[in-house]
Amino acid sequence: MSKIEKTIARQQEKIAEGQYYEAHQQLRVVASRYVKQENWAAAIDILFGGAQALLKAGQGGSGGDLCMYLVDVYTRAELVPDADNKGKLFTLLRAFPLEEPTKKRFVGEAIAWASKFGEFPNGDPDLHHVAGVLYAEGEDVETWGCFLANVADHEPYDAERHLALGTKDSAEKLAQVEYEWYTQDESHTAALYAARAIFPYLLTGNLRSANKAHLIFTSRLSASNKSLTVQEVSSSSSDMRVYPSLPLLNFLGLLLLAIQRGSADLYRQLAKHYAPYIKEVGIWDDALAQIGEMYFGIRIPRQGNPLFDMMGSMLFGGGGGSPKPSTPKATPKKVDAPAPPPVDLD
After folding, report:
1. 102-134 b/e with 16+ CB inside 10 Å = b?
2. DSSP state of 282
3. Is the dihedral of CA 133, 139, 144, 147 positive or negative?
4. Positive or negative CA dihedral for 63, 68, 72, 75?
5. Alpha carbon distance 199, 26 (integer Å)
6. Using one digit for the tens of pLDDT, what is the confidence trace for 181-212?
7. Helix (H, G, I), strand (E, B), or coil: what is residue 133?
8. 287-301: string of b/e by CB count within 10 Å (b at 16+)?
9. Secondary element (H or E) of residue 272
């Protein structure tokens, strides 16, 4: 047994005996000694083993502290987010006790490290996916009903934010999250929840995931609501479900079709036709303006003093991220649906 293994074993014995504070402090001291020597591998082994043992013992505060120290060592050593380094973080993230507040900070620091030393400016997709799935599966609460009742504490927005920046597998989970959330609301609000999965992917240039999220959400909607009228419209190049009672859901499907075709005229036609319903929502304007510019070259009008705009961005948190969606409970009144505008699917 190596010296490091003996150290970890001794501290694991103390943890098993309930001497959590002593084990935590000694693990920190030993790790700091290796950090000063720039013996990164030894420091990582000590911190990973110690954090894992404390987390398994239900000591989220002490274990979380060692987790964040581990990310600090990754940063000092300028390690890249390869499979081994990320794997340790995944193991620790899954070991956190329920409702441990340091978990969110640990996720944030891990994402920041991966952003700095990896190839993805917004953070490693694998890290985002694992974090998003853990939030989405409601490991902090037992049921979705409880999840929503405690939204102020548990924030399902965390799941949305991470899954929107995740892997190709994240779209399915995000669509499931939104559908489960939708089932707690009025039946006519389906498009509001579908958009929460579709818009973030479109705003990050991920059309494939946007289409996948739309397909999964609408498939579950149709399968779970046998009384919902659905019309299948097909052509040699496109297939689409039309929902006579859900105009904005039709808009989202046609929007994705317009993006695939790169048709600015079709986009303008859709925006005009569905304008009254989009206005009722009241929270889609900024996202649609950005989508119009990104995919159809329709420039967003720039007004105001550029210096003031810059200062406002600095002082009030503006920046390059996607706008945070408003809570879905701010729903529009139910309106009768018009038929979708005629679109040549060929």
Report:
1. bbeebbebbbebbbebbeeeebbbbbbbbbbbb
2. -
3. negative
4. positive
5. 48
6. 999 999 999 999 999 999 999 999 999 999 99
7. helix
8. bbebbbeebbeeeee
9. helix 264-273
Is-contact 243 228, C-beta < 8 A? yes
Average pLDDT, the chain: 85
Q: How far apart are CA 88 and CA 154, in angstroms?
A: 24
CA–CA separation, 92 and 48 (whole Å): 8
Please state, in angstroms and rounded to a whole number, the distance separating the CA atoms of residues 264 and 272. 12
CB count in 10 Å sphere of residue 40: 16
SS3 of 241, please? strand
Q: Are 193 and 156 in contact (CB under 8 A)?
A: no
CA distance 327 to 182: 12
Which residue type is seen at 340?
Answer: P
C-beta atoms surrounding 72 within 10 Å: 16
In whole angstroms, give the CA distance from residue 339 to residue 344. Answer: 14
**Nearest-angstrom CA–CA distance, 266 and 258:** 6
pLDDT of residue 280: 93
Tallying the residues shown for the chain, one arrives at: 346
CB atoms within 10 A of CB 243: 22
CA separation for the pair 204, 214 (Å, rounded) = 16
**pTM more than 0.90:** no
> Which structure tokens are listed for 277?
């319903």
DSSP-based three-state secondary structure for 107: helix
User: What is the distance between the alpha carbons of residues 69 and 62, in angstroms, rounded to a whole number?
Assistant: 11
What's the angle, vertex CA 110, arms to CA 102 and CA 47, rounded to 5? 70
Token pair in block for residue 301:
């009008």
Cβ contact 62:24 at 8 Å? yes
Q: What is the pLDDT of residues 93-146, one digit of tens each?
A: 999 987 888 999 999 999 999 999 999 999 999 999 999 998 887 643 344 444
Q: Is 305 helix (H, G, I), strand (E, B) or coil?
A: coil
Task: Single out the residue of 222, 163, 142, 162 nearest to residue 190, CA to CA.
Answer: 222
Token pair in block for residue 247: 């105009």
